[in-house]
Amino acid sequence: MTPRKIGDLIWHLHHDVLCEPLTESLANRIAYIKNHKPKAEVETRLRLMKPIRGKLPVEITKAYVAWLKAYVAWTRPELPELYVDWIKADMAGAKALSDYRPEVEALHAIECPDCPWTKHPGSIFGKGRA
Ligand SMILES: [Zn+2]
Predict the structure, then answer these.
(1) What separation in Å is there between the alpha carbon of 62 and the centre of ligand 1?
(2) What's the CA-to-centroid distance between 29 and ligand 1, angstroms?
(3) How far apart are the CA of 36 and the centre of ligand 1, in A?
(4) Is residue 3 part of a domain?
(5) Distance 105 CA to ligand 1 centre (A)
(6) What is the pLDDT of residues 5-35, one digit of tens each?
(7) Cβ–Cβ under 8 Å, residues 124 and 19
(8) pLDDT at 79
(9) Which value, in Å, is the radius of gyration of the alpha carbons in the chain?
(10) Ligand 1 centroid vs 49 CA: distance in angstroms?
(11) Where in the sequence is the domain holding 37, given as residue range(s)?
């Protein structure tokens, strides 16, 4: 897998989220899953967690470029007050994903075939595990 960077959108970074941006290295997330998640869940989590390769609507891309700028600014120790800006950018990114949900789900269907994802509840572990 090509190294991914902070801000890259990833399918199923968490079991209950369809896609979201990286806030740490993918290697860190993989290590966390291997060390802290139930053994029966590890294979499914690692198999489904992958970068989005196709094109998403430009509004989503723009929102996540703004998200990345706000995130990088906030993580500078001398500028902790920028946390609120990052939260706002995070909410804008989530709204963009929500506004273009059909397009996101269509791309998910192509890039994540045979995925057990359920919308209600949103989970890669089906209806029994929210
Ligand atoms: Zn999937």
Answers:
(1) 23
(2) 17
(3) 21
(4) yes
(5) 9
(6) 888 899 999 999 999 989 889 999 999 999 9
(7) no
(8) 87
(9) 15
(10) 8
(11) 1-53+116-130
Q: Are 18 and 118 in contact (CB under 8 A)?
A: no
Q: How far is the CA of 82 from the centre of ligand 1 (A)?
A: 33
Q: Tell me whether residue 93 is in a domain.
A: no
Specify the pLDDT at position 127.
65
pLDDT of residue 130: 54
Give how many domains the chain has, as a whole number. 1
Q: Which residue has the higher pLDDT, 38 or 128?
A: 38
Answer yes or no: is pLDDT of 76 > 80.
yes
Examine residue 59 and state whether it is found in any structural domain, yes or no: no
* Residue 58, in any domain of the structure: no
117 alpha carbon – ligand 1 mean position (Å): 6
86: pLDDT strictly greater than 80: yes
CA of 46 to the centre of ligand 1 (A): 11
Ligand 1: centre distance to CA 60 (Å): 18
pLDDT at 93 over 60: yes
Q: Give Cα 89 to chain centroid, integer Å.
A: 14
Rounded Cα distance, 130 and 124, in Å: 9
Residue linked to tokens 């509004």: 59
